[in-house]
Each structure stands twice: as C-alpha cells, then as structure tokens.
Amino acid sequence: MNTILRAGTVSMLLSLLALCGQAQQPAGSPPAQALKPFNASDGSASAQIPAGWNVVKQGETVIDLTGPNGESISLGNTFIARNAQYQNAKVQGADLNMPYQANLEQKFTMIFQYAAFNVGKPAPQIQFISAKPIQAPAPLGQCATFLGAMTGYGTAPPSNFEAVFCSLPMDVAGTYKNIIKFGLVPQKQAAQERATIEAVLASYTMPTSWLQRKLALNVTPPAGGMSGGAGGASAAATIAQATAINEETMKMMQGADVSANCADQEIRETPMWRLPPACR
Q: What string of pLDDT tens digits covers the 280 residues of the chain?
C-alpha cells in the first residue's frame, strides 16, 4: 500500500472514530443475526438492521430501532449541553445544562436522566460494567465505549446496554455536542443478542458532508456575551481555542478528501502530468 493511500485511509478513519466502535465479544458468543441495509430517507445515515426490527425514527443522522423482544438501538443522537450545573429543567438554546468537566460516565448518566425527565419519567439507574476510552484526535473531543446495566428506563425491563459516547469540544457560546449510539436489550436475552447489537452499532455510518455538520462547532459569540461560565477575562482565550479547534477539524476533513482523491487517482494509474497539484 502506498503512502498516499495510507494517509487518506487513516485520516478518514480518524474522522469517523468518534462515531464508530465495537466492543470485544466473549469467546463462544452466539453469532449475529442476518442484517439488511437501511438508509435514512434524507441520505444522512445508514446502518445494517436485523429482520423483524422497526425503524421508529430516522433523519438528521439519527436512526432509532426497536426489536420484537423489547430491544432498542439508537444511532447518532446528538444532545447539545450548556456548560452549567445539571438540573432537571428546560434550557433555552440547548438541550440541557451539564458541566463540561464531568467525566464521560457522568455525562452519559445525566443525559439519560434528562431524557427521562423530559417525558415525565423517573431517572433510570445506571451501572457501568466497563468503560474503555477511544483514542480520538483533539478536535473530536473525548470518546469511550461502555458496557453496563440499566433499570427504570421508561417501560423497558432491566436491561444491559452497550454504547459509544463522545463529548465534543466546547464552543464559544459555552455549549458542546454529545453524540451517542447505544443498544439496550433485556437482560434475559443479552448474551444471545450481544453480537447482533454490536454488529448494528458498528455498521452505522454517514456521508462526509453530514459528518462535517455533525462535528461542526459554533464559533459565533452569542448576543450579550459569553455564557456557561466562559465569560470575563477568559472570553478571548475561549474564542481563540474554539476557533482553532474548528479550523483543525475542517482541515482534517479536507485533508481526508484530498488524500482519498489522490489515492483514487493513483489506483487508476493516472499519469503524473494529469494529477491535481495537491497529489504531485
């Protein structure tokens, strides 16, 4: 494999790293069910889904599924948090208040608490069995894969879950995106269906243009100054940091596009004199 192809492949994998991942199955686990491709109607995302499952929500990079035995899978949901103390309350300009410095397990739990509050349900009880960090580039924030157990989540019975969770860098408005994909399965079926859940999670993807929108930061200061504890003397530094992060992300995405194009040209054995300047 040539250097250009490696660079393009690595860049694209790094760009997708925040949204894709698969846990390691125990030896002897039952195999995954047969899956079939599904594409969101707006072209924003795709995944492989099991036969007999229903798509209950799609579009804007989200695909939500329910299974015949109380299973559920949610792919690509984004929660915008304001950097502030968590509280069960509606928030203007964001989904919820949540301290940016909280760790990923705490953020994951607060998002589920807020989701329950939002539909008038009690907060679920969440127990983490494992939390494994994903080594993602700085522009993509912090990411991890989770295994755990959850009780009291809506009408679901006690269930096991697998999840990939990313908390992106904070923008100049003191808000930040949190992206989740997770599978939830009743505990009595967890061992049987683990491979299927993981296969669906790992199959989720989206076009580069939608990924760019998913990762984009807001670099316009809000009217009336900074919010979420980012004001005062630190405002200029916060703006500079957020702008630099956003520029780095866009450069990374553009670099992935250029490298992939050059790799394609090289595979086709395009003569040197016909290569785009960026590929010479």
A: 332 323 333 333 333 433 444 445 555 567 788 899 999 999 999 999 999 999 999 999 999 999 999 999 999 999 999 999 999 988 888 999 999 999 999 999 999 999 999 889 999 999 999 999 987 766 678 889 999 999 988 777 899 999 999 999 998 889 999 999 999 999 999 999 999 999 999 899 888 888 878 877 654 444 443 333 333 444 445 445 544 544 554 454 455 444 444 544 443 444 555 555 555 5
Give the type of residue at 170. Answer: M
Tell me the C-alpha distance between 111 and 115, whole Å.
6
Neighbouring-strand partners of residue 166: 143, 179
Domain boundaries, the chain: 3-215
CA dist 242 to 37, 112, 136, Å? 37, 27, 17
Helix, strand or coil, per DSSP, at residue 193: helix
- Determine the angle formed by the axes of helices 208-215 and 3-16, rounding to 10 degrees: 50
Q: What is the CA radius of gyration of the chain?
A: 20
Token pair for residue 179? 């992206």
CATH of domain 3-215: 3.40.1000.10
Which residues, 6+ apart, have CB-to-CB distance to 152 below 8 Å? Answer: 121, 122, 123, 124, 125
Token pair, residue 29, equals: 């686990």
Render the burial of 68-82: b for 16+ CB within 10 Å, e for the rest: eeebbbbbbbebbbb
